[in-house]
Predict the structure.
Amino acid sequence: MSLKILILCTGNSCRSQMAQGFLQSFDHLLTVRSAGTNPAGAVHPLAVKTMLEVGIDISQNVPALVDDFLDNEWDYVITVCDNARESCPLFTGKVKHRLHMGFEDPAQAHGTSDQVEAVFRKVRDQIKEEFFNFYKEKVLKSAMDCG
């Protein structure tokens, strides 16, 4: 049985896309989708660039509207917004577990191109660490409990 995981944020152009890319790289059997309450027109180019730096290609991903996933059942819905700066989307669909992992929005970073890229890398690395911990603690444990 493959777990179904939905990752939510506002624009679905950076953090949720990175998290989706990492989870799929940890386990290709997972069903992972990401969405936003106000999706951007495209995945942020620096999200694509910084994920490619760690060998994950999210360049073909397309931001999606959370409403498109309301009729599906999910094992986990995980919000990745930064509570201090934005309101997290509320998912009203069928879900077994709701989690929140707050990350700074790298798309809001200011400064030189090197400074902005550094923020994207920092957030990428935080997302990788938090979602790998989630994967080990929740996903693998669930697989062992079922096996």
Notes: The first strand starts at residue 4 and ends at 9. The chain has a mean pLDDT of 91.
